[in-house]
Amino acid sequence: MSDITLNLTPNLYDYMQKMSLREPDVLKELREQTHKMSMAQMQISPEQGQFMRLLIELTQAKKTLEIGVFTGYSTLSVALALPKDGKVVACDTNVEWTNVARRFWDKAGVGDKIDLHLAPALETLDKLIAAGEENTFDFAFIDADKANYPSYYEKSLRLLRQGGLIALDNVLWSGDVADQDIHDETTNMFRKLNKTILQDERVSISMIPIGDGLTLAFKR
Predict the structure, then answer these.
(1) Residue 176: which pLDDT band, with cuts at 50, 70 and 90?
(2) Distances in Å between the alpha carbon of 101 and those of 58, 72, 84, 149?
(3) I need a surface site. Which of 11, 109, 120, 209 has the fewest CB within 10 A?
(4) Helix H or strand E segment including 217
(5) Of residues 143, 150, 148, the one with CA closest to residue 197
(6) What b/e sequence results for 157-166 when a residue is b if at least 16 CB atoms lie within 10 Å of its CB, and e otherwise?
(7) Is this prediction's pTM over 0.85?
(8) Contact criterion met (CB below 8 Å) for 19 and 185
């Protein structure tokens, strides 16, 4: 028993993965291919992907939103956990990265579950709202350009049904949010957003020290 979260040493992290990670072969292949790319650090960790699959199962989600796709690891993680009639509305602007994603989605047999919108995410979210899709999504994952996180959060909250869940990635920002000597624009944005969500009575929250920090916001 401990009254603080354990510090994961490399040895303990390796043990945790060996004792808990159930990564489908297609996800492992996608992760390994992405690691060869110049922006590989943008990919979530495999244990975070597994955690998201568990969240989908726990919430019995069918209709989900993903803001920021990259090569599609998180999208595929969610799609694999959805029922046959489930759907992911995925937002990104990069054709090269999402072409990799599409290839693996199809290889996994879930391409028909994923509706990819190649356009600025704010435009896609506004179109969904205008089309009357407020309060209809079960789950949303935000992991895109950081400057727009506050807007992504607000629009996702509008699209989410009561009892739905938002997951926001990178909220610890490599630990910079706790370093008062760092005041760049992105770090300050995360500090402000984290405080905003803390004080937001529309949601119940938990900040999870997984990956680069993941905040879960449950819409009341």
Answers:
(1) very high
(2) 25, 4, 19, 22
(3) 11
(4) strand 214-219
(5) 150
(6) bebbeeebbb
(7) yes
(8) no
Torsion of CA 78, 82, 85, 89, to 10 degrees: -20
State the sign of the Cα–Cα–Cα–Cα dihedral 199, 205, 210, 212.
Answer: negative
Q: Pick from 131, 44, 54: which is nearest to 89 by CA?
A: 131
> What is the number of other CB atoms lying within 10 angstroms of the CB of residue 139?
26
Phi, psi of 115 (to 5 degrees): -105, 95
**Assigned token pair, 171:** 């909220």
Residue with tokens 């297609």, as numbered in its chain = 26
Token pair of 211 as six digits: 């990956």
CA distance 216 to 139: 10
Q: Let me know how long the chain is.
A: 220
Question: C-alpha distances in angstroms, 215 versus 110, 139, 180, 203, 205?
Answer: 27, 13, 21, 11, 7
**pLDDT of 1 higher than 70:** no
HSE, side-chain direction, 13 A CA sphere, residue 101: 27
88 in Cβ contact with 75 (< 8 Å): yes
The answer to whether the CB of 155 falls within 8 A of the CB of 179 is no
